[in-house]
Design goal:
alpha/beta; TIM Barrel; six-stranded mixed beta sheet; six-stranded parallel beta sheet; 10 helices
């Protein structure tokens, strides 16, 4: 039985046809799309911000565990394992265990050059100033596998680092930052092109001082991360972000932690914090604050698709991160979703 499939496939946006979810029968029909399709096709998911999942944490994982993680993430084509703010030796150990794997595109260094005013779940005792520790961190900062760094652009003497990394093609992101509007705009002028989990752990918007959030919303040079897990950001805030940034400048991320896939009520120790896993969330036991997310990007895709439509889900979860990373090759992973954004199957062109 032939079924219509809409979305973004090997021939781009349009309507396709396939028989009984048999990928070998996929055929491009036309560029017309059905706004509420029964089945949706997309390229593989690209997650630029993920700390772990299924009990595996990048900071402590072995190479084999990272391979297992890469092969377990549903619908993923590529991801950047993300560090947490930690002493140098712990970060070095984590990246030394980063295996060569087609789905691992390098790493995202989150911290340690961030603001103690907005640590989120980052261990505050490990936050440092770049000016005082630049030399000792050079080995990590010049690692060719470094693809994205989250930092606070208001830190002393960090502007030179922003320029240097930007010149090498590393994506520089402002996050866990107390930068006011002018400091954020100055950072953007130096080479900041990305905002980490927009709205969360950054100076917010005020009508007299627009803050980091205001700079992110207004400056078209900046890609804005969004954790749309129904916990970190309200629907209205997400709608505002899509409206202000447009469909091509929002990048959905999971910010997934080892808590993803664990049973609700499970108590875990993560990054030195005692945490408890809830329904699609993980929180610090000490104060109830969110400690990253407990969902992978396929769940984020579902939330965006059912709230804002599958086109924005495909752009923010698949196409926009590919574009920011400069990936020009054809996707090797394709996903099929039902009309409610539930992941149905994956087709791997290399298998």
């Amino acid at each position: 039985m032939k079924e219509e499939v809409c979305g973004y496939g090997p021939q781009g946006w349009g309507t396709y046809e396939m028989e009984r979810k048999d990928w070998s029968t996929l055929k491009f029909i036309c560029e017309r799309q059905t706004p509420k399709a029964e089945h949706v096709i997309s390229p593989g998911l690209v997650d630029l911000h993920i700390h772990g999942a299924f009990g595996i944490d990048f900071m402590t994982a072995s190479q084999q565990e990272m391979i297992e993680l890469a092969e377990s993430l549903p619908g993923y084509e590529l991801f950047l394992p993300t560090t947490v703010t930690a002493p140098l030796e712990e970060v070095e150990r984590a990246i030394s265990n980063l295996p060569q794997h087609r789905k691992i595109g390098g790493f995202h260094l989150e911290g340690p050059f961030i603001s103690p005013k907005h640590p989120g779940a980052q261990p505050p005792e490990a936050i440092i100033n770049y000016a005082e520790h630049a030399e000792e961190w050079q080995g990590v900062l010049i690692d060719p596998r470094l693809k994205l760094i989250t930092l606070a652009p208001e830190q002393d003497e960090i502007q030179m680092l922003i320029r240097e990394l930007n010149g090498r093609g590393v994506i520089v992101s402002m996050g866990h930052t107390d930068a006011d509007y002018n400091e954020a705009i100055t950072g953007i002028g130096m080479g900041v092109t990305h905002a980490t989990h927009t709205f969360n752990a950054m100076r917010g918007f005020h009508h007299r001082e627009a803050g980091t959030v205001g700079a992110t919303l207004l400056d078209d040079r900046v890609y804005a991360e969004l954790i749309f897990d129904d916990k970190h950001v309200s629907q209205a805030a997400a709608q505002l972000l899509f409206r202000m940034k447009g469909p091509d400048r929002v990048i959905a991320v999971s910010d997934s932690t080892l808590a993803s896939g664990l049973k609700s009520g499970t108590e875990i120790t993560m990054w030195g914090h005692e945490c408890i896993v809830g329904e699609d969330e993980v929180r610090l036991k000490s104060n109830g604050a969110l400690a990253g997310s407990a969902v992978t990007l396929d769940k984020i895709f579902k939330n965006i698709a059912t709230t804002f439509g599958y086109e924005l889900a495909i752009r923010s979860c698949c196409l926009n991160p590919r574009n920011e990373l400069g990936i020009s090759s054809e996707p090797t992973i394709w996903n099929l979703w039902d009309g409610n954004g539930v992941h149905l199957s994956t087709f791997d062109t290399q298998n």
